[in-house]
Amino acid sequence: MDLFTKKSIASMMAEANNDGGKGLKRVLGPLGLIALGVGVVIGAGLFSVTGVVAGLHTGPAITISFALAAVACALAGLCYAEFASMIPISGSAYAYSYVTMGELVAWIIGWDLVLEYAVAAVTVSVSWSRYFTLMLADIGWTLPPEICACPAEGGVVNLPAICIVVILSLFLAGGTKGSARFNDFLVVLKLSVVFAFIFLGWKYVNTENLTPYVPANTGDFGDFGWSGVLRGAAIVFFAYIGFDAVSTAAQETINPKRNMPIGILGSLLVCTILYILFAHVMTGVVHYSEFAKSGNEIAPAAVAVAHMGSVGADGVVVPAYPWLNRGILIAVLLGYASVIMVMLMGQSRVFYSMSRDGLLPAFFSQISKRFPTPLRSNLLFMVFGGLLAGFVPSRVAGEMTSIGTLFAFTLVCAGVIIVRRTMPDAPRGFRTPFVPLLPTLGVICCVGMMLFLPADTWLRLVIWMLIGLDIYSAYGVRHSILGGGTHRRHGQSFLSVLGTILSLVCLLTAFWHQQTAGWQSDRTLLYISCALAVAHILYYAIRFSWKKH
285: part of which helix (H) or strand (E)? Predict the structure, then answer.
């Protein structure tokens, strides 16, 4: 068996159904799936990223950024819907890639998804921490700033962010059904607050704040102007990964061939409408420059509510809805909890699928005897996500989530084109229209937005993929179930060449980032990247030499 061997749909379905009752349980219907998608989408984008993007990149034109991201997302969503109806098992894009493009590509996308979901949970947990400190301050309690921010943001450790990741990981380990019911409650609460924000804030929209709608570029690429709108679209894209998380729950869905497309596309439609309306009100009530101020970019909803009211004689705004700000704080905290929980569930299910295929130790695919969940995967990412939440800045985490998501979507769109040619007669509950046109447009949109992300984001992605390739070459190649338990498989030379190319890309990207940041700025990331690149070039040269002998 070579490294590009493919799994059949039949074998995947057999594995999912022939588990002796010890596998994941089918408990989710169409409304539950939509709630799952809305639960993870609403919050990550509305309550955190909007402030960063509007204040630093787009101004009022953030609505255009959301619309552009939604178009690209819809193209990918149609492709996800077809795959989910064909292959209704846990694993999302990882499973789809295994069927269409083979094991090596599946590993690459699976490793990317682990990054996407874990880092997305981290991004939201950092914002949760900011809102949590605001709520405590509102009732007169103040936490030491040293324990509420990572070192890069002036603190020592973000302890509230760590705590919420740990608590929700333990709650998620208790079972999908209970977690889904809790998520449904949180979704209703979040939607109520979002509707209240839009309805009550609409009359306080000041058209002067919306002029100019697309602020002039500052002279730096991505800082306002149309380049800023495009960069904004790339950054907010991660806020749409809710439907992607829906696909990871396919193996826990009742009648997945019918319900998965409904859940994926339904959650995407609901969230897109709410995003645009919310962003319009937010930037209409408050001038976008306010969100660029330190602290305001992380809690933009609270800033907007504080400006909903009449201006007194002293020029100070008297809030018309002081209760709304407190309600938003509570709803955001609980809403963020649902986002983090769904993300943690998504990455543990991908890890579970990769482990079942032998690409990771079987330890991670064992289902808990007490709870029908991959407990060990949950606990692993409780530790991993908790550490990242405590020490990684929110900007870095958000941009890493975006590029990971876009990379996954690119491969899914390409996979639909491939599967229509290789498996035209495979049963599908849903078919993507206008193939190959729409999937091709999806690839173009996703790659285009990736190009607008900062150089350091690309560098971190390359480093992460290098680490993943190390694990696959050292463990996955030998232990893969399809590989027959041998490391002497066709394609080893290609793997070494791929690793070498990726190492060279790492080296070039490191210098690109330093050139962008300025040679007088900190060079730590440059030195680390160069050391990793050189070490990997030597490693793969040795592997290639061993293969020849």
Answer: helix 256-285
Helix (H) or strand (E) holding 104: helix 103-138
Residue 175 burial (C-beta neighbours within 10 Å; 0-12, 13-18, 19+): middle
What's CA 394's distance to the chain center, in Å?
Answer: 13
Per-residue pLDDT of 357-405, as tens digits, reads 889 888 777 776 666 667 777 788 888 888 888 888 877 777 787 788 8
Cβ contact 84:94 at 8 Å: no
Q: What's the mean pLDDT when you consider all of the chain?
A: 82
Burial class (CB within 10 angstroms; exposed 0-12, middle 13-18, buried 19+) of 439: buried
Residue 20 clears pLDDT 50, i.e. is over it: no
Cα–Cα distances (Å) from 71 to 58, 214, 427, 438, 515, in that order, read 18, 19, 27, 11, 32
Indicate whether 298 pLDDT > 70: no
Q: What share of the chain is helix, strand, coil (3-state, %, to 5)?
A: 75, 0, 25
pLDDT in tens, 86-113: 877 766 778 888 887 889 988 998 888 8
> Can you read off the two tokens belonging to residue 200?
């009550």
pTM of the model: 0.78
Going along 6-60, which residue ranges are E strands?
A: none
Which residues lie closer than 8 Å to 234 by C-beta, 6 or more apart?
A: 69, 402, 406, 449, 450, 452, 453
Interhelix angle 455-471/492-517, nearest 10 degrees: 160
Confidence of residue 467 (pLDDT cuts 50, 70, 90): very high
Contact 365, 134 (CB under 8 A): no
pLDDT tier, 183 (very low <50, low <70, confident <90, very high otherwise): low
At CA 541, angle to CA 540 and CA 547, rounded to 5?
Answer: 85
CA distance 10 to 17: 11
Distance, in Å, from the CA atom of 308 to the CA atom of 385, rounded to the nearest integer, reads 36
